[in-house]
Structure formats: structure tokens, C-alpha cells
Amino acid sequence: MDLGNQLKGEKISLTEMLEARDIRVAKQKALLEQHDATLICFTMNIPGEVKVFPLASRAFEEGNRLIVQQLERYGHKQTSYSEEIEKTGYTAYYCVTADAEKLKAQMSAIEESCALSRIFDIDVITKNGKLFRMNERSCFICDCRAFDCARSRKHTVPELLKKINSIISEYFITSFFDKVTNLVQKALLYEVSLTPKPGLVDMANSGAHSDMDYSHFIESIAVLGPFFRRFAEQGYHSKELSPTVLMEKLRYPGMLAENAMFSATKSVNTHKGAIFSLGLICAALGYLYQPERFGAICRNHLFSLCKEMAENLVVNELERGTQSIDTAGKRAFAEHQVNGARGEAASGFQTVRNFGLPLLKTDANLQKSGLTALLCLITHTDDTNILKRGGVESLRYAKKYANDILTKYNNEDAFDVFKKRIEKMDHDFIKRNLSPGGSADLLAIAFFLLFLEDDSVISCALDDEPDLSYNAIL
Fold it and tell me: Which terminus of the chain has fewer CB atoms gathered within 10 Å of its CB, N or C?
């Protein structure tokens, strides 16, 4: 960690620090006089001459979020809130209608359990003075009492600051990896649970698959979470590498993920395509993530990076055939010049962006929007699974079938009629042994991107929003 870059900010003098403390005490007294309530004063324990810098700002925002969450959890009413961010540090004041002793215990719970707690100082104050915590804090570098270390100056300021920056960074990095992992598993659950799906495994039947059912997918999703997390971690720790080299680094973790899937499903391939595509996106998210920055990752930047990571795959693995493993994707390219999942990734997931994600956004009911998105993806995807099972004529048939149902839904059908038409399509695909598994993988990607946006992990602020009407897409 480059501590110099992490601690960019205005330096303060000892005199300014002492003056700031006096001002804070005066503000506390004024608030206690003005409001018949208990006061929470939240500050940050930042040693040294620089008190305000990006990582500390994020930690302050997180501390406020946790305090508000705790107040809401116990039903406490805030009568006043204010915050001050000066070069001398961060301060937030909460006037709360609550018993002081209970409030202190509730705030201490934050200080004792949150990974950032060593940096938080959450005082609970009444007109009779400040309430003290029951247990003394230990030093966050050694196991001694924090008071003793501070008094003896056992640790240097650079040592303390390095530790503080490490604590804050690790907190947000860990939270980021947790969120990405949760959302990718959520996307896979939404995809497999969407019912009815033509020729695909769902909660009603196994589609055109005699070797798998809904439970195989649940077992697979349950074991894949740690591997998607590993992809994100690999991306984060590979920022010094080029995108194409990062892609190579993902190959072995991807094999381990496939092994875990096959072990959980007793050799059934439920998510091989999803491991490739979603694993690539997770790695790209990790590559772009910066813990010291507020705000979401730009969606355009994410797609551009995915495109760079995968740009050589079509040439190296499909055209030149450097990978000896035989796959449906390679056979589809050899026989029909269809690029499959590799080509979709190399395009920056253009099909998902144009036909999957926009339709998912047309209705908050993801059952409705999910089915329309799936049919739209079938209509516009050269699905290698369909090619493998039925050839070019079956692919044309599937595309036309999906497009016809979508057109009728847009122009005349109610959702119940639309759903019945898909059920009929499902029965037809089962008889024909057709399964649009590639389109299902694209739908899972679309769900993932939607959930990433909803959770403010990525942002489309710099994108040109597409026309979300059915007529514009069909």
C-alpha cells in the first residue's frame, strides 16, 4: 500500500486540534441544552497531521450508516442530526430520545463487533456527562491497553496510520467481495427459478434434460459462491497485469470451480457456461474496484474491460484451436462459425446489453420481465446448445417461435396468455429435444448486472440508455 497516496489531505497543527476539541465540547453542551435528549457524538480515531482523506471519509459514512441502522433497530427517535467535516476531522451529532445506559450498550455493540470499530469513537453523553464503556479498548496493533500504548507512544504515527489504512481497506474490500458473491448467486437462483422456461430446467420440470433437475442447480449454486469470490479476488490482486494476462490467470480457478460443480451434481454440467461468463465479470469487477473511492463502477468501464480480457479467446481457442478440450462451443464455431460464449464476452456482452438487461428493466415483477428477456435473448442469440441438439434449422425454428410469442404479448396478449404460450413452447421444445442453455446463461448475466445496478455496485450514469420498448428491440 502506498501510504503517501492514501493520506492525501490538509495537515493540521496541534493548536488547531486543541481548538477543534474545545469547539466540539461547546457544540455538545449547546445541543444538550437545546434538546431534551441523549446525545451521540461520533468521531474518528485518526492519528497524525492529516485527519481527512478518502478512506477515512468512507469509514465515516459507514459509521453513520451503522449508527442510524442501530437506532432504527431499537425504534429510537432522532430529534436532531448534524455533521461537521473539517480539516481537523469528522464529527456527527445525534440527539436521540432514548435511555442513556441502553443507548450506550447499543452503540458499544457497534464498537465491539464491526471491523472498523477500532477507528470509531461513539460517545453517549447526557447533561450529567459522558458514559464510559464497560471494557477498555486494546491497542489495534498489539494486545496491550490502548491507553497505555498511547501514553507511552509505543507505536509510531506512520505505523498506526498504516494499520488504520489496512483496517479500512480490508473492511470495504471484504464487503465488496461479499456483495459480488451474494449477487452472482442470487442471479443464478433467479435464472433457474424462472418458470416456465422452454426446454430448460425450472421449478416445473427438467425441460429437455433427462440427466438433471432443479435440485442439481441448487446444489451447484450452493458450492460455487466461494469460487466467484475467488474470481473477484483474483481480479483485485491483479491490477498490475494486463486484462489478457488476468484472463489466463482465471483459467485454473475456473477448472476448480467446474470440479466443485461436478462433485456437487454427481457429474452433471449445470453451470459450466455461467462459470466462464460470470467468473469473468466477477474478476473484472475486482480489477476495477478501488476501496478509497465513493460511488459505483461505471458499467461502460466494466464492459470494456470484459471485452479486453476476452478479445483473444475467439482467435486463439476457436479459430486456431489452441485449447485441446472439445466443447459444444468449439464444435459450433467449426461447423457454423458461431462464436458462442467466448464471442459474447469478447463483444463486451453486447447481446445481454442490447436484449437481456433492457427488458429486465421493463417490469419490477421479475417473473414477467425475466420471461420476456429470455425470449428476446433466444430470438437474438445463435445458441450453441440448440445448434448442438438440432442444427441450424432448429435454431431458426426456436428464434421464430420466441419472436412470435413476444410479438403477440406486446400487441395483444395478457400475461396469463403469454405464460401459457411459453408452457406450450416448453412442451414443444421437450419433444424436439431443444434447450436454449446459452440464452439461459445470458439471462443469468442480465440478472447479475441488474442486481449490481440495484445495489449500486455498478452505475449506468455514463451510458446511453436504450429504448426499453418491445417494439424497439424486436
Answer: N
Task: Give the tens place of pLDDT for each residue, 297-310.
Answer: 999 999 999 999 99
Round to whole Å and give the CA distance between 216 and 265: 5
Is the CB of residue 228 less than 8 Å from the CB of residue 282? yes
Question: Which grid coordinates belong to 30?
Answer: 449547546
* Spatial distance between the Cα atoms of 278 and 344, rounded to a whole number of angstroms: 12
User: For the whole model, what pTM was predicted?
Assistant: 0.88
Share of the chain above pLDDT 90, in %: 75
Element containing residue 472 per DSSP (H, E): helix 470-473
pLDDT tens digits, one per residue of 60-111: 999 999 999 999 999 999 999 999 999 999 999 999 999 999 999 999 999 8
Cβ contact 374:439 at 8 Å = yes
What residues contact 126, with CB distance under 8 A and at least 6 apart? 32, 38, 39, 100
Domain membership flag for residue 121: yes
If asked whether residues 14 and 53 sit together in one domain, one would say yes
For 90, phi then psi, to 5°, come to: -110, 135
Query: What are the φ and ψ backbone dihedral angles of 390, each rounded to 5 degrees?
Result: -135, -5
Radius of gyration of the chain (CA): 27
C-alpha cell at 297: 463502477
Mean pLDDT of 37-62: 93
Instruction: Return the CATH number at 49.
Output: 3.30.70.260
